Amino acid sequence: MICIKEESLGVIDYKMMKATTMFVLAAFLCATPVAAKDDPQAVARCLKLADLAEDNAVICSGMGCNDSSIVMGARVDCEKGQYVRAIAALEKYLRAQHVTIPPN
After folding, report:
1. Residue 101 located in a structural domain
2. Which strand (E) or helix (H) includes residue 62?
3. Domain range for residue 87?
4. What is the number of structural domains in the chain?
5. What is the full DSSP assignment across 44-97?
6. Are 81 and 38 in contact (CB under 8 A)?
């Protein structure tokens, strides 16, 4: 999700942008090899929290909003295998948004 002015996009444009962003992230994920030693539970948790955070991300109106960059950065950390860092950032973000964090 990219920080944009709310009034600049219609509903269809926003959905298309989200779909395009998800496609690019999915392509990156598929192109990034996952080491065999990765903990499958950490991978699943990281991606689950990233999906939840993206679903609850705020569309910014005006300058100074960095919610989407926090979520996108955490997803990239997940994809790079930096699960502890990504999970911590995502949980902090979700708590700030008053979203219930699912159990492990």
Report:
1. no
2. none
3. 6-96
4. 1
5. HHHHHHHHHHHHTPPPP-SS---HHHHHHHHHHHHHTT-HHHHHHHHHHHHHHT
6. yes
Report the Cα 14 to chain-centroid distance in Å: 16
Question: Who's near 31: CB < 8 A, 6+ residues apart?
Answer: none
Closest among 87, 65, 60, 64 to 74, alpha carbons compared: 87
pLDDT tens for 28-42 read 555 554 443 578 999
Distance separating alpha carbons of residues 7 and 10, to the nearest angstrom = 7
CA angle, 69 as apex, 44 and 62 as ends, to 5°?
Answer: 140
CA-CA-CA-CA torsion for 30, 77, 18, 23, nearest 10 degrees?
A: -10
92: how many CB neighbours lie within 10 A of its CB?
Answer: 13
Summarize pLDDT for 15-72 with one digit per residue, the tens.
Answer: 655 656 655 555 555 555 444 357 899 999 999 999 999 888 765 555 556 667 888 8
**Domain presence at residue 103:** no
CA dist 34 and 88 (Å) reads: 20
